[in-house]
Structures are given as structure tokens and as C-alpha cells.
Design a protein that fits this description.
Length: about 180
């Protein structure tokens, strides 16, 4: 493997890891704030909330109770923007962690992304294409900004949500083919 290929490999691994870790912070903060809104006191309550609810359930629950239970010193939030942002962050994360990343090529190594789904009308829907490492890196940067969703900075949140939605489409819009059953 040449130096350029090693650099691309490292960048891909760092971007995938950055996606996972950044999303973990988002999910942990969401569980933390739910715990605060419910007046839970134990440190383990964050873990209980994380274990008991899916991410989508946590988002829906938080968005339902925040407007009426937020503390006086907590910022007002555009709940719709928060929900859109958190859902978009999860979709990006899922597009990364539920993909198969592999190397193709004999002379020149090329990183590829593969994703299959059985939820298609035609049966197996399979997406296969060259890994877009730059889109992954940009997604990590957007996730880092979305991590501050609880600060009430609506315009920044909307901007980063738009970015991450485009990046998710970019990652998943690759060569498609279907296998009929």
C-alpha cells in the first residue's frame, strides 16, 4: 500500500470513528436533559434512559416535555428545528455505521461503501459505490456543531441540519441496483 492509500485509509477510519463518537455525545446529552426535566437525581439515570429508549423515542419524548418542563434559566428552543436536527444526525450516523466499508482494486486500492436493504418494493435494494471520505469528514464537522443543539442557537442548528441532510444523500446516492425476489 502506498502512502496516499494509507492516508485515505486513516482518514476513513477517523471519519467513521468521529461519526460514532460525536453521535454518542448527542445521544448522551439528550438522555441527560430528559433526566433533568424528569427531576431524576442519580448519575445512572442517564444510562437508564439511554438503555430504555431508542434514539427516536428520546427525541420525541424530549420535544414533547421540554416546552412545559424546561427550567427558567434554560434557553427557549425551536423544538421543530431541534427535532429535525437530531433526526438528521441519526440518519447520517446510520448511513455510516450500517454500511459495509471495504477495499476494491488490485493495483490501486479504492475504499468502497456498500449498503443493502430489504425494505424496497422490488426486494433487495443494494447501494454500492466509492467511499466519499470528504463527505464523511464534513459530516463529522456538522455533527460536532449539532452537538450543541441544547443551546437554543436555531439558525446555526438549521444550517448544520441542512448540511448533514445533503451529506447523507451524498453518501447514499451512489450506484444502485436491485435484485428481484
Amino acid at each position: 500500500m502506498c502512502n496516499d492509500e494509507l492516508i485515505k485509509t486513516d482518514k476513513l477510519k477517523i471519519a467513521i470513528g468521529g461519526t460514532v463518537i460525536s453521535f454518542q455525545f448527542i445521544e448522551n446529552d439528550l438522555a441527560y436533559f430528559i433526566g433533568k426535566l424528569l427531576l431524576l437525581k442519580e448519575d445512572k439515570d442517564v444510562h437508564r434512559i439511554s438503555a430504555a429508549m431508542s434514539f427516536k423515542q428520546k427525541v420525541d419524548f424530549f420535544c414533547e416535555i421540554y416546552p412545559t418542563r424546561r427550567w427558567k434559566n434554560w434557553p427557549e428552543m425551536n423544538i421543530k428545528a431541534v427535532k429535525n436536527s437530531l433526526v438528521a444526525a441519526e440518519e447520517f450516523r446510520n448511513s455510516v455505521v450500517h454500511s459495509f466499508w471495504y477495499v476494491s482494486g488490485k493495483r490501486k486500492i479504492v475504499w468502497m461503501r456498500s449498503k443493502g436493504s430489504l425494505r424496497s418494493k422490488v426486494g433487495l435494494n443494494h447501494v454500492d459505490g466509492i467511499a466519499d471520505i470528504r463527505a464523511l469528514e464534513q459530516g463529522v464537522e456538522a455533527l460536532k456543531k449539532i452537538r450543541d443543539w441544547y443551546l437554543g442557537k436555531t439558525e446555526e442548528l438549521i444550517t448544520e441540519t441542512t448540511k448533514i441532510k445533503k451529506l447523507t444523500k451524498k453518501l447514499t446516492r451512489q450506484v444502485k441496483f436491485s435484485v428481484e425476489h
